[in-house]
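Sample intake sheet
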Amino acid sequence: MQPRARATRPSLRPAAVRRTSAAAVAALALFASVTGTSPAAAAPIPPASVKAAWTFNFVDASNRVPDASGRGRPLTLAGNWSRVAGSAGTGAVRFSLQSYGSNPATSMSPGTAEVAVTAVLRTWVPKPVGDHPNVLQHGLYADPGQVKMQITKDGTGRVNCRFKGTLNQIVVTGPWIDVTDGAWHSATCWRSGAVVGVTVDGVTTTRTRDVGSVLPTRALTVASRGLAPADASDQFQGDIDTVVWAIGTGARADAPAYAAALSVP
């Protein structure tokens, strides 16, 4: 019998990441739109565990979103995407059918370390095209290793996460929060030791299973696997404001805290 998932609400928000004021963010976004200069330098200082962060406040002429963490891992956009206002009035990207973002760095494979990915997202598409809409994935289903955040295809709008490693695989479905209601939500998939979990808007569901070492070997992608017609079945349709990828001690707390510092004034 599989362990029963349980939902908990954290008592304290992870502490102490510097915030950028709304006025500063707006000024920097305006400066970037006029000068073509990336505003990434104004991002809060990231915790050590954060390996990449994309705010979508700026997209360069090569369709690259700079890495706001300063780690040098940009996200390249392709397909039918567009710019929209984000959760704090700054930048976000709207992903439509046949659009996605990718980063080829396999150095973001967590192995046995603590790992977490947070996405600040908004969608109003309650029923997917075919399969679960992919918010983010590192590795494919049949690969030896995978970390994946997706929205369930049963119409409930819940977030679930899949972790696959050298010992096992597990899918964890998040709390009963419908993220397809057209509002902004923060979702985090995380693994710490033998515990895996999904946290949505501060509410957490966990399960226990040791999946072993998680070693994805493919590019990390956002919103879909790619542009091929077969990839449309996994397409996330909606807006993404911020994505944070964290590995190492404190990742579970650091990813959502840093995402909040980047996307909320």
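Comment: The longest helix spans residues 22-35. The chain is about 10% helix and 35% strand.
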